[in-house]
Amino acid sequence: MSNKIVVGYDGSDSSKATLDFAVGLAKSQGAAIVVAHVLEWSPYSFLTPNELEERHKRRAEELERAETAVLAPVVKGLADSGVTVTTALKYGGIADTLCDIVEAEGATQVVVGRTGHSGLSSRIFGSVAGTLAQISPVPVTIVP
């Protein structure tokens, strides 16, 4: 396993503080960081072919927007940090997809914020951080 830390990032103030924490951690451990942004996307199997085509177009547009508006500024902002930074942008359930990224990257740890953009839904269905702490294949650090 390489020394990589996956950081869950959604652009919220909490995830910015989480990223700052992860950069300090990476510096102290000589680790690289993978800034991971997950777009939630529910698969509907009952769509018509035209609806599916439109949905795929919107999906591509969302990926492009997330890369430009969320991840590119982070990479640019960390250019002088002394830490190797890469990104991962995926669709799916956030906790499960972060675990997939951890495994694909061979990461040794995942760092997430306690709160993010999920707001009300996390109070009803459970938080990403809580779920991740239960299912992650590597240690999870939850930043308050």
Bin the helical content: 40-55%
What oligomeric state best describes the polypeptide chains here? single chain
CATH class: Alpha Beta
Count of domains: 1
How many angstroms separate the termini? Answer: 27 Å
Q: Identify the CATH homologous superfamily.
A: HUPs
Q: In DSSP terms, counting alpha (H) and pi (I) runs of 4 or more, how many helices?
A: 5
User: Mean of the pLDDT scores?
Assistant: 87
CATH topology: the name is Rossmann fold
Protein name: Universal stress protein UspA
InterPro entries: Rossmann-like_a/b/a_fold, Universal_stress_UspA, UspA
Pfam family, one: Usp
Family: Belongs to the universal stress protein A family.
How is the topology of this model organized?
Blueprint: E1 4-8, H1 13-29, E2 32-39, H2 49-77, E3 85-91, H3 94-105, E4 109-113, H4 119-125, H5 128-135, E5 140-143
Parallel strand pairs: 1-2, 1-4, 2-3, 4-5
Helix pairs in contact: 3-5
Please give a structural write-up.
InterPro entries: Rossmann-like_a/b/a_fold, Universal_stress_UspA, UspA. The chain is an alpha/beta fold and 144 residues long. It has one domain (4-143): 3-Layer(aba) Sandwich (Rossmann fold). The chain has five helices and five strands; from the N terminus they run βαβαβαβααβ. It has helices spanning 13-29, 49-77, 94-105, 119-125, 128-135; strands at 4-8, 32-39, 85-91, 109-113, 140-143. Helix 3 (94-105) packs across helix 5.
